[in-house]
Amino acid sequence: MARDIRLFILACSVCAVSKSSNRPPAGLLQPLLVPLRPWSHISLDFVSGLPPSQGTTVVLTVVDRFSKATHFVPLPKLPSARETAVAVIDHIYRLHGPPMDVVSDRGPQFVSKFWREFCKLLGVTVSLSSGFHPQSNGQTERANKDLERVLRCLISQNPSSWSQQLSWVECAHNLLPVSATGLSPFQCSLGYQPPLFPELESEVAVPSAHTFIRRCRRTWTRAKLTLLLVGARTKVQANRHRSKPPVYAVGQRVWLSSKNIPLRSISNKLAPKFIGPFTVTKIISPVAVRLKLPPAYRRIHPVFHVSKLKPVFNSPINQPVPVLISSPTSENMQNIQ
After folding, report:
1. Which BP terms in the Gene Ontology apply to this protein (predicted)?
2. What is the pTM of this model?
3. Among 116, 118, 123, 83, which Cα is nearest to 101's?
4. What is d(CA 316, CA 219) in angstroms, rounded to the nearest whole number?
5. What does the pLDDT read at residue 319?
6. Other C-beta atoms lying within 10 Å of the C-beta of residue 245
7. Using one digit for the tens of pLDDT, what is the confidence trace for 37-80?
8. Crossing angle for the helix pair 138-154 and 162-175, nearest 10 degrees?
9. Cys-Cys with 282: which of 16, 205, 239, 290 at CB 3.0–4.6 Å?
């Protein structure tokens, strides 16, 4: 009887859409590959909502995934795909050459045909985060938090002066050692730590170009080994609070969490916790799958992290009850993106 009751509840569509899950989030951590050199793999994001300061209201944050070096680029407004490409050329390509891979969220700048064609012409691969899973671009999200925290301390008396402090914030960020490598971004990317005082200048002097190259290679090797060790340790720590996801297959039906999807509901408290079921159309990775969404959800990207899904169970004991899917409200569709 206990087994039958358990199977009955697992296969109950009313329970599936109405009950919250108390299990740890599904999907073990899948760290990004460690780059071989500085500025070959970068990540991008924007900081918006800032007060006008010398004609700028937005900051483009660019993080080198190898050295953790950061560029904070002030912009007058949220840029289009073309304006984002120009900013990347002026502030990244010009200084560090073309990257091999760019990680970003699914903002309109990064999902446009222009951005994809721009990266394709440069030979750059585009890596986009899955739906409602900003952890995929966690390094830039963390850099944004650091920027906002420092700016709050610096411009508390004059908020409109934040653009004047941006260069100092970037310099201070790149001078401080990071836990991932044990080195400062400057030291990891340049091979030496820029001196803060004249008496330290002798420590930077390089007798020959060969010595400089050897020092850079030693630094990069040390940084890569440290990144690999830290990545393995981070994966172990993160997986303590996650559960191994079910093995999904193409054609399988799943429920989708409604946490990030505004629904037409009389009461948010009584709205369903999951919607669907939807069919899996493609396995992107062990932690990301593509779903077949109805036309009402055409503006939502169909790739989701497995922590947002749970499988549909079938049982001969009970028959599945059809569950009506509420459509997102049109006024909240922009917030979904």
Report:
1. DNA integration
2. 0.67
3. 123
4. 62
5. 58
6. 19
7. 889 999 999 998 899 999 999 999 999 988 889 999 999 999 99
8. 120
9. 290
The residue type found at 328 is P
Which residues, at least 6 apart from 197, have a Cβ–Cβ distance to it below 8 Å?
none
What six digits make up the tokens of 282?
Answer: 């493609």
CB 74 within 8 A of CB 184: no
Residue 156, SS3? coil
Residue of 134, 128, 142 whose CA lies nearest to 180: 142
* Three-state SS at 44: strand
Radius of gyration from C-alpha coordinates of the chain: 24
> pLDDT of 75-127, one tens digit each?
999 999 999 999 999 999 999 998 999 998 888 889 899 999 999 998 999 88
Cβ 108 vs Cβ 88: under 8 Å: no
Instruction: Answer yes or no: are the C-beta atoms of 253 and 276 closer than 8 Å.
Output: yes
Six-digit token string for 317: 């004991």
Q: What is the largest CA-CA distance in the chain?
A: 81
If one counts every other C-beta atom within 10 angstroms of the C-beta of residue 261, the result is: 22
Q: Tally Cβ neighbours within 10 Å of residue 157.
A: 6
Contact 231, 212 (CB under 8 A): no
Give the pairing of strands 70-75 and 274-285.
unpaired
Q: Is 275 exposed, middle or buried (0-12, 13-18, 19+ CB in 10 A)?
A: buried
Going by C-alpha positions, the residue among 303, 246, 307 that lies closest to residue 280 is: 303
Question: Exposed, middle or buried by CB within 10 Å (0-12, 13-18, 19+), for 59?
Answer: buried
Tokens of 106: 């699914």
What is the bridge-based pairing of β-strands 309-311 and 253-257?
Answer: antiparallel
Closest to 25 measured CA to CA, from 140, 103, 137, 132: 132
